[in-house]
Design goal:
2 domains, 7 helices, Arc Repressor Mutant, subunit A, single chain, mainly alpha
């Protein structure tokens, strides 16, 4: 008969540490592991962006959140040419303005009508990506501001009744 005996180490003796195995970085490679981590972080950022959009839309719907003119300009306009185009379209009113007229009014920037249209579309895309609202809309061949833009600008430029200018 064989007796089973356990080997007992003296209390002061150090035990060998158990080998933990390879890390994930060692298993798939450093570059691939960094790509996995980056994808994980970007997915979390997308999730947070979606939550922020839901919160802002809820606040807008309840009437607690309003966009200001500087905020809209900061989001939509990338340079002074965009600001000038925005100002020209705003002064044209709800009837709108042709891109070639805007290009003719801004000779210092050497714009053609198609440059104006492309800039307007880019501003629309930037603002819609951030806020879900469009700044410009087509009316026939002309570009005009949307009702969202007129509400935003109307609140700051005309502090009295809407559509009625206040004299100081």
């Amino acid at each position: 008969m064989a007796e089973h005996s356990e080997q007992v180490l003296p209390s002061g003796a150090a035990q060998k540490p158990r080998k933990k195995g390879r890390t994930m970085e060692q298993k798939v490679g450093r570059l691939k592991y960094n790509q996995i981590l980056l994808k994980r972080v970007l997915d979390r950022l997308d999730h947070l962006d979606q939550k922020a959009d839901i919160i802002i839309n809820g606040l807008k719907g309840a009437g607690y959140f309003y966009f200001s003119v500087p905020m809209i300009q900061r989001i939509a306009c990338s340079d002074e040419v965009d600001l000038e185009i925005l100002e020209r379209v705003y002064t044209a009113g709800s009837a709108g303005v042709f891109p070639k007229v805007i290009a003719a009014e801004l000779p210092e920037y050497h714009l053609e009508h198609y440059h104006v249209s492309r800039r307007i579309q880019r501003m629309n895309k930037r603002l819609e990506r951030e806020t879900g609202e469009k700044l410009f809309e087509k009316r026939g061949w002309k570009w005009a501001l949307t009702s969202f833009a007129f509400e935003t600008w109307g609140d700051t430029r005309f502090p009295g009744k809407k559509g009625e200018e206040v004299s100081e």
